[in-house]
Amino acid sequence: MYRLPDPTPERSVPGAPWWPLVMLDVEWINDHAHEFDVFHLHFGFDAVPPAELQRIVAALRDNGKPLVYTVHDLRNPHQTDPSIHDVALDVLIPAANHLITLTPGAAQEIRQRWGRDATVIAHPHVVQLEVLDHPRPQRETVTVGMHLKSMRTNMNPLPVLRTLLAEIRDRDMDLLIDVHTDVLTPGMPHYNQEVSELLNHARDREDVRVHVHDFYTDDQLWDYLLGVDLSVLAYRFGTHSGWLEACYDLGTRVLAPKVGFYDQQHPGVLSFDWDEQGQPDSNQIAAALDGLPALPPWRTTRSERTRQRQDIARAHSRIYQAATAGRSS
Known about the structure:
The protein is of the alpha/beta class. 36% of the residues lie in helices and 14% in strands. The protein has helices spanning 26-32, 50-62, 82-95, 104-114, 157-168, 193-202, 218-226, 242-250, 282-291, 302-324, and strands spanning 39-41, 67-71, 98-101, 119-120, 142-147, 173-180, 208-213, 230-232, 253-257, 270-272. This is D-inositol 3-phosphate glycosyltransferase.
């Protein structure tokens, strides 16, 4: 198999981690149809109008090119209004020759909503394979980490953070709070005064560390995750999590809300509920903190991820062969 390189847009920003997909374009498909056999879509269509997606699907069909779509998100974590993503899924899922998703729960929802079967192929490793051998540092005190990042649309960190601040006070634990600089800088798009005020108060506690910084590089992020024993995710909606996969790669336990299918990505994910007012279940969070020190190690191995990667490649190969043979799932 050969994968075409991702073309760089003419107006791309040097060093940018993301850019609009050049391939997701009717003209590109028509001009390059002779170069590929299968069109495999994962992400990158957030800003593409449904009518344009229809044209893209039609261009693939007119050129005799099968569409394989991996459904990572049944709810877009960057969009408050779920109907925007729903309309896009209503175009892509019925049109795809083959569907892939990451968990059995997501496959079941796809079957219920669209009457389509999706092949479940687990999320591969996120951290580089050689880093999986890095030992975890030894600590006398359990460290709980919560990273607010840039307050992505699906995050609801303040209620969870307040709960953690209250619960940590009564336990022999430290709380590490990370946040991007733009959240605490007045005038920046993601500035949040409420977060700024809460963190200013939290800084005074001996069992709390607040770390304000710009976006981590990959290596910095891996070091950060190795430095905490539990990573708490404060997502109010979503489907799957690459952050969770990175935690599993490095042996950092995860406490995630019972939304989407985070708990199906790997056995051993700790969970809590949201109530109707958007408040986390403090009893469930307290129980997770109490049980954390006695939990067994929760970490993949380099050999396990290598085997998984080979299995994923074989599964994709079978799907591509079926697609080019004209067999749909």
